[in-house]
Design goal:
The chain has one domain: 3-Layer(aba) Sandwich (Hypothetical Protein Ychn, Chain: A), CATH 3.40.1260. It is 37% helix and 20% strand. The chain has 5 helices and 5 strands. Strands 4-3-2-1-5 form a 5-stranded parallel beta sheet, with helices on both faces. α1 (14-28) links the parallel β1 (2-7) and β2 (32-38). α1 (14-28) packs parallel to α2 (59-70). The radius of gyration is 14 Å and the shape is globular.
Length: 130
């Protein structure tokens, strides 16, 4: 079975941790993840500037490790990212901002990527949000 997973909450939120554990279980069960899509406050999970306190789990770092280890398609909504100051090199240059904080494996793209993932997947599962 093919899954598309959308994350709407920041890394420190319980729903982001649940989304990560769910994604791990999907792959452990022999299924496929068509795309991970980070939207609204979920884009903070992709920021290279997220620092977890020493007594907390670094969920943003765990997301990065999980995505890289499994070579997954991880898309960050460009509109939500810009609004929250999460920029790749191209957008930082475009808007003349001094900081780049969206490293690989993340990619900026639009909501069309979520729509496409929902079309190719058997299931779209969403975590967090209002």
């Amino acid at each position: 079975m093919k899954f598309a997973i959308a994350v709407f909450s920041p890394a420190h939120a319980p729903s982001s941790r649940r989304a990560l554990r769910y994604a791990e279980a999907v792959l452990a069960g022999g299924h496929e993840i068509a795309r991970l899509f980070f939207y609204q406050d979920g884009v903070h999970s992709a920021s290279a500037n997220v620092v977890a306190p020493q007594d907390e789990v670094d969920v943003a770092g765990q997301w990065r490790t999980f995505i890289e280890a499994n070579q997954l398609d991880a898309v960050v909504c460009i509109a939500a990212a810009l609004r929250r100051g999460v920029l790749d090199e191209a957008e930082a240059n475009r808007y003349q901002r001094p900081a780049v904080n969206l490293p690989k494996p993340w990619e900026l793209s639009g909501l069309g990527q979520l729509h496409e993932a929902a079309q190719v997947a058997d299931r779209l599962v969403c975590f967090g949000g209002d």
